[in-house]
Amino acid sequence: MAKKITLLGSTGSIGTQSLDVIQAQGYEVYGLAAHSNVSLLFKQIQQFSPAVVAVVDDEAAKKMRTLLDGMANAPKLLCGKEGLEELAAMPQADIVLNAVVGIAGLPATLAALEQGIDVALANKESLVTGGYLVTETAKRKQARLLPVDSEHSAIFQCLQDAHSAKTLQKILLTASGGPFFGKTKAELQHATRQDALRHPNWSMGNKITIDSATLMNKGLELIEAVWLFGLPPEKVQIVVQRQSIIHSMVQFADHSILAQLGVPDMRIPIQYALTWPERVPGPAPELDFTKLSSITFDVADEETFRCLAACKKAISKGGLAPCAANGANEEAVRLFLEDKISFLKIGELVEGIVESENFAGSYTVQDVYECDRMARAYVLEHI
Question: TM segments (predicted)?
C-alpha cells in the first residue's frame, strides 16, 4: 500500500522537489501546507488531491478559501500557525516531511512527533532551536527523525551498517563554500544581495542561499549533526568540497572513512528519507564520473565567515545559545535581503548575541520562543 505523506512547506524549493519524488514513487499526499503562495498551492491541490491543506498567512488563507469554495471535492482548509500544527499532528499520514523555513517549523515537528509520527526533517531549525525537546519527544514517542538535508542524509546513509556505526569517531561535514569562497573581509565589504544569491551548485530559496554564503548554514548543520548523531561538536569537522559531489563522510575507530557521493540534487536525500530503509529508482540523475575533472577539499574560513565560528561557540555553550544564534541570523538575513544591513554585519550580529549571555540550562518550548524574540530584538537594537 502506498505511503501517505503530509508535506509542510510544499511551495518552497524543498517542497516542490519533494512532490517530484512523491509523484515518482506513487505515494499519496494526505496534507499540504504553505505560508502564503496560494496560486502554487492551489495548483498542487488540483494535481495531488490532498484531504487537508493549511495556509499560515491570514490574508492568503482567505484567498484560498475563496478558491476552494468553487472546487468539487475540496480539501479541508486549516488556517494560521495553529492550522499548521493541527495538520502535522493528523495521524492519517505515515510520515510528515517538514520543509518549513525557520523556527516556524519547530511546533509542527513537535506536534507530529508527539503523535508518534515519523518526521522527515528538512527544517534544520527544529533541532537548532529546540534540539533537546525534539530528540526527547522522538525518543519518548518512539518516532523516527529522518534527515533530509543532503549532508545529514549522507551521514545517515554511511551509518546504516549498525555494527560499524557503534565505532563512529568523527563526522566530516562537507560545505560547498558558497558564492564567496576564498574572499577576504575587505573583498566582502560591499557584497550585494544579488552577489550572495548566486550559489555555484545548488538551487535553493533565498534565506538558505544567504546562509550558505555566510557559512551560517554549515554552522546550523553542525548543531543539527550533534543532535542527530550524538557526537560532541569537536568531533564534527567542516570540510569545504567545492563541487558538492561528496555530501559528507564519517570516520570510524580504525580511521576508515565512508563517504556518500551523488549529483547535487536534493531529490536524492528527500527520496531516501521517504523510502528508507529501501533504495528504489527515482527522478534524480546518476553521477557520471567520466565528466568529473576533479574533487577538491579545503578549510572553512571562520575568520572571515563569523557565523560558523558563532555556531560552534553556541553549541559548546549549550542550552538556548543555538536558538539565540538562529533567531539573530533569521532577523539579520531578513534585513540584508531588504538591503538594510551589509553582508558582513550578519556575522557580527550572530556572534554578538552568542557572546552576550550564558544561555545554559534546561528549557521549555516557551523559553525557545522568548529566546528567539530576544535575539531578534538584539539585532534591531544593534544595527
Answer: none
Query: Which residues carry a binding-site annotation for 1-deoxy-D-xylulose 5-phosphate?
Result: 124, 150-151, 176, 199, 212, 217-218, 221
Question: Annotated binding residues, as ranges?
Answer: 11-14, 37, 123-125, 149-151, 176, 199, 205, 212, 217-218, 221
Span 304-352, pLDDT tens digits: 999 999 999 999 999 999 999 999 999 999 999 999 999 999 999 999 9
Binding positions for Mn(2+) are: 149, 151, 221
Q: pLDDT digit string (tens) for 148-201?
A: 999 999 999 999 999 999 999 999 999 999 999 999 999 999 999 999 998 777
Mean pLDDT of the residues in the chain: 96
Question: Which residues fall in the annotated binding site for NADPH?
Answer: 11-14, 37, 123, 125, 205
Pairing verdict, β 168-175 and 236-240: parallel
- 243: Cα separation from own chain's centroid: 20
3-state secondary structure of 62: helix
Q: Are 130 and 368 in contact (CB under 8 A)?
A: yes
> Which domains, ranges and CATH numbers included, belong to the chain?
4-147 (3.40.50.720), 152-381 (1.10.1740.10)
